[in-house]
Amino acid sequence: MAFKDHFSGIADAYAAARPEYPDELFDLIAACVPANASVWEPGCGSGQATRGLAARFAHIHATDPSARQIAQHWARAGGANVTLAVEPGERTSLPDASVQLVAIAQALHWFDRDAFFAECGRVLAPGGVLAAWGYGDFVAPEGMVEAVADFRALIDPYWPPERALIDAEYAGFDWPFPALPTQSMWLEAEWPLAHFLRYLSSMSATARCRADIGEDPVARHASALSASWGDPGEARTIRWPLFLHLRRKP
Asked: In Å, what is the CA distance from 27 to each residue of 46, 100, 101, 168, 227?
C-alpha cells in the first residue's frame, strides 16, 4: 500500500531530535487500559511513544510503513516487550480482537482514516481503547519570537495539507467509537541550541523546502536563531500544545 512518506529521508534527524512525550499522557491512557494489555502502535516512527507504552503495558506491536524509520527504532537495541514490523497503518498482521489498545502518536493525519478505523475495529477486543494524540507547532521561547517567525515564514508554504488536521486537533473526525474523558496538556523539552536546530531540521516542511529551494532553511536562519537564543550551551524550555483523543470500542 502506498503511503505519504515525509520522513524516511530525515529518519536520522527524526530519531535524534524529536521530543519525548510526558508521563501525564501515558498515565491518562493507562487509567483506561489494564497493564497486561497487548498494544498496537501504528505509525511508530523511531519510537518516541513506544518507550512510554512499553513501560506500562505487557506487549507492544510497533509498526511503521517506513523501513528507514523502523531501522532507527530504539527497540532494535533491546526492547524485550516490543516487536517491530514494516506495515502500513491501514493494515496489520495482528489477528482479530487481539489487542486492548491501539495507540497512535502524531501520525493519524497521514492515514486513510476510513481504512485505519476499520482496522482498529478488527484488531481491538471488545472494550479496547483507541488513543490518538498529537502536538502542534512549538511556542517560540522568550526573545525568539521574531527569529522564529522569520524561519516559519520560509517553511510554512511547504507544510503538507494534512498538517492542518494537527492544528485543528483532529476536530471533526468520524471516530468509530464513543469518546472517553480526556484533557489538553503540554509537551516540554529542555534543549541546548544544537538540539533545537536539529529539531527544526526534522520537520517535514523543512525537508520539502530544502528540496525545492536547494538550500537548508535552518542554515539560512541559524545566525538569527542563535543570536536570539543566547548562550548556545544553555538549555531553554521548548513547549508544544498536546492533545489526546480516547475512544472505547463497545
From this structure: 21, 16, 14, 24, 38
